[in-house]
Design a protein that fits this description.
With 231 residues, this protein is mainly beta. It has 2 domains: 109 residues, Immunoglobulin-like, CATH 2.60.40; 114 residues, Immunoglobulin-like. It contains 2 helices and 18 strands. The strands form 4 sheets. Strands 2-9-8-4-5 form a 5-stranded mixed β-sheet, with no helix packed on it. Strands 11-18-17-13-14 form a 5-stranded mixed β-sheet, with no helix packed on it. Strand 17 and strand 18 form a beta hairpin. The longest helix has 7 residues.
Length: 231
């Protein structure tokens, strides 16, 4: 067997695992019915079962080398691990012996993606006069996200312009569909990027600050400010 990817070095949190595995003693088929992939943390040795690979991937190169019987000896899957350095090991189970054969290993470092946050507040508009009950709405994404918009929390605060303690207006509803945002950024994963809520403040002038929580950064790492007058 051989582990073709990942190559040694840095990979993203989601990475491909692929290669080929066979037992030349098999009378028919590839002689392998399972490939399990494990990750061993290089710092503490902790093991993580990454998953069972999909089998039957066409490998005409292997078939040309070892015979047509082994042309479907390829395997592949997508791995997912938190940041860290790991030894990735793939083990193949032989149908001849019923045992997992010695595995193939590769050392990788999973690197956290760099956050790329973007957001916009549609309502209220800058310097708008609003009633005491008003709408806060807009969209927020983290472009580094590989699944979904990358933002799961929006908090809204009001800071009195004349001074005084900030007021927590509330947490918005997230996940609203924004096909315009998805079209702008070129991927459907950014469609559920909308947020909205109903705010309530006493009369006065405020700086409304909307903070977005990034799943990539693991914190509130972007914000927009809108000044309003409540009557």
């Amino acid at each position: 067997m051989a582990l073709d990817v990942p190559g040694a070095g840095n990979v993203s949190a989601q990475f491909a695992v692929a290669g080929w595995a066979l037992d030349r003693g098999a009378q028919s088929g590839t002689g392998v019915d399972q490939v399990h992939v494990w990750a061993f943390n290089s710092s503490n040795g902790a093991s993580t079962f990454v998953g069972a690979a999909n089998l039957g991937v066409s490998r005409p190169d292997i078939g040309a080398w070892l015979g047509a019987q082994f042309s479907s000896s390829g395997f592949g899957m997508t791995g997912n691990l938190p940041p860290g350095t790991y030894d990735i090991n793939a083990y193949a189970r032989s149908t001849v012996t019923g045992l997992f054969m010695a595995g193939q290993a590769r050392r990788i470092t999973v690197v956290a993606p760099v956050s790329r946050p973007m957001m916009f507040a549609d309502y209220p508009a800058q310097n708008q006069t609003v009633a005491q009950f008003f709408t806060v709405a807009g969209w927020a994404v983290d472009l580094a996200s590989s699944s979904g918009p990358g933002v799961t929390g929006i908090h809204v605060w009001a800071f009195p312009v004349g001074g005084g303690n900030p007021i927590f207006v509330g947490a918005t509803t997230t996940g609203q569909q924004r096909p315009d945002v998805a079209a702008y950024f070129g991927h459907s994963r950014f469609a559920p990027s909308g947020f909205t809520m109903q705010g309530n403040l006493p009369p006065g002038s405020y700086s409304i600050v909307v903070y977005a929580w990034s799943n990539i950064a693991g914190g509130f790492n972007q914000w927009v400010l809108v000044t309003i007058r409540v009557v």
